[in-house]
Structure formats: structure tokens, C-alpha cells
Amino acid sequence: MNFRRGLRREEPEINLIPLIDVLLVVLIFLMVTTTFSKFTELQVNLPSAGAAAPDQRPREIVVAISGDGRYQLDDRALRFDSPDAFARELKRAAEGSEEATLVIHADAGATHQSVVNVLESARLAGLARVTFAAQAPGGAAKAAR
């Protein structure tokens, strides 16, 4: 005899509400126990300049390099034969001034090698101060130090 003939078997189902409750409690626990660190800013004390402007500027030796590879030293056209020969010319231009500054005016179309040649000659001539001239937005060239 089968007395359970009319009853159907119920499928088991997972109740999600208690799972959500447990996850909310875990989430609240994590939020309460987490330590929040503030990002601190780097405190920098910058030095202030208190020196007076120098009375006289050091001697400037101006070397101009054109886009087609011509060199000019203090408004005088020169050929670049070798770094040694150009170094001798730089030494002559720097005579009498121990702290002469070499200012390089290189055209935008000048090759990198021509600028490197002048830098090598300056090293051979013993000129330690080298700067490049840049064109200001107004169009006038000024030395970039």
C-alpha cells in the first residue's frame, strides 16, 4: 500500500536572505576594523637667495652653428677642421678670462654632430661652463642657463 501517492516531493532550495545577512555583518566588521591612512604631504623648506647680483658678468664666447654646418665664433666665420684646431680657437677667444662661458647658438636645422663637435672642442680647451641659447617666444634669442 502506498499512502503517499498524491504527495509530490519538494525540491530543496537555497535561502539567500540569511547568506546576505551574514555578508553584511562581515562587511560592517571589515569597515570598522580597517585603518585608513592619510596621505601626508612632503614638507620642503626651500632655501632663499640672499646674494647680491654680480658686479660683472663673466666673458661669453658665442659659437653659432648654422643649419648647413657653418661655424661662427664671436661674429667671425670659422671652418671646423678638427676638435683640436677649434679648441685652439676657443682658447684664444677665452684668453684673459678664467671663467669664460661658452654660449652655443645652434640652428634648429643643425646636426647633432656639429653641436657635439663644439662640445668636444670646449672640453679640450678647458671650458667648463657651457650653455645653450634658446629662442624666446617673442623671437629674440637668450641664453638658457
UniProtKB/TrEMBL annotation:
One of its GO terms (molecular function) is transmembrane transporter activity. InterPro entries: ExbD (IPR003400). The chain crosses the membrane at residues 12-32. It holds the Pfam family ExbD. GO terms for cellular component: plasma membrane. It comes from the Bacteria. Its main location: membrane. GO terms for biological process: protein transport. Gene3D superfamilies: 3.30.420.270. Keywords: Cell membrane, Membrane, Protein transport, Transmembrane, Transmembrane helix, Transport. It is found in: Cell membrane. It is a single-pass membrane protein; Single-pass type II membrane protein. PANTHER family: BIOPOLYMER TRANSPORT PROTEIN EXBD-RELATED, EXBD MEMBRANE COMPONENT OF PMF-DRIVEN MACROMOLECULE IMPORT SYSTEM. Belongs to the ExbD/TolR family. This is Biopolymer transport protein ExbD. It comes from Quisquiliibacterium transsilvanicum.
